[in-house]
Amino acid sequence: MLKDVYEKFANDYDEFGSIEDYLGSEKTFFKVLFAENNVQTVLDCACGTGQHLLMLDELGLSVCGSDYSAAMLKAAAVNLEKYGKKIPLQQCDFRQLQEAYTEKFDAVVCLTTSLPHMHTDEDLLRALKSMRDRLNTKGLLVLTQGTTHYTLSLPPIEVVVNRNDFSRIFVKENDSQFQTVHVLDLFHSQERNEQNQYDIKYKIILDDDYRRLLEEAGFHNIQIYGDYDKSPYDKQSRRLIVVAQ
């Protein structure tokens, strides 16, 4: 059984800000991609706090959300209620989506470095096959992450949020297979003065790894981009975006 590494982090996760602020033209990317492929139904199988569910709903899509973390789903429910949205949520391990869903979707998305929580090829393949099994014929799988050849070469300390009342710092440790991100949250206001640390371990999966794993899982027509403008992925890309059928 997976440990819920977001059990405590979930309450403050959205201190990152809105996804429009830190993911740029992602919404336009999905609008164009899904229109080109006649996508109407979408499963976000690592929906976290629900920000992507809201974005996809705004595009007029029929959306469902699942996540392994009960804490993240609780945060998602609060966010959806805030906007008056009744998007169905399920707690589910994305290696076993068939346990929560009998229906199939035009697209399955697994975004923001979620798949690399799987640390073995066996688990990665189980997850990818589970996602493929929930797709309609010619359905799309979309994966996104911020781990790239370029970002792995950057200095290990990164200030990702710096406001008057709050700072979030990443301290990254890499080896040949894994990246551990130590998240340091510093609240420094009269209302809240505390420090929290969360440690998240990701498997390093890059473009060639994705091609190999996706082909083995039964996908084809695999496209790998370096940004939401669909520029090809290369060693200078700051994002890694996979689209496969």
3D structure, described in words:
This is Glycine/sarcosine N-methyltransferase. One of its GO terms (molecular function) is S-adenosyl-L-methionine binding. It is an enzyme of class 2 (transferase). The chain has about 240 residues and is α/β, with parallel strands linked by helices. It has two domains: about 10-145 and about 205-245, Vaccinia Virus protein VP39 (Rossmann fold), CATH 3.40.50.150; about 150-200. Helices cover about 25% and strands about 30% of the residues.
Name some characteristics of this structure.
single chain, 245 residues, alpha/beta, Rossmann fold, 2 domains, 7-stranded mixed sheet, 4-stranded antiparallel sheet, 26% helix, globular, Gly/Sar_N_MeTrfase, identical protein binding, transferase
Order of helices and strands: HHEHEHEEHEHEEEEHEE
Total count of strands: 11
Q: Order of strands in the sheet with the most strands?
A: 3-2-1-4-5-11-10
Indicate how many domains the architecture comprises. 2
Radius of gyration from the alpha-carbon trace, in angstroms: 17 Å
C-alpha end-to-end distance:
29 Å
CATH third-tier fold name of the largest domain: Rossmann fold
Low-confidence blocks of residues = none
Largest sheet: 7 strands, mixed
The CATH H-level superfamily of the largest domain is Vaccinia Virus protein VP39
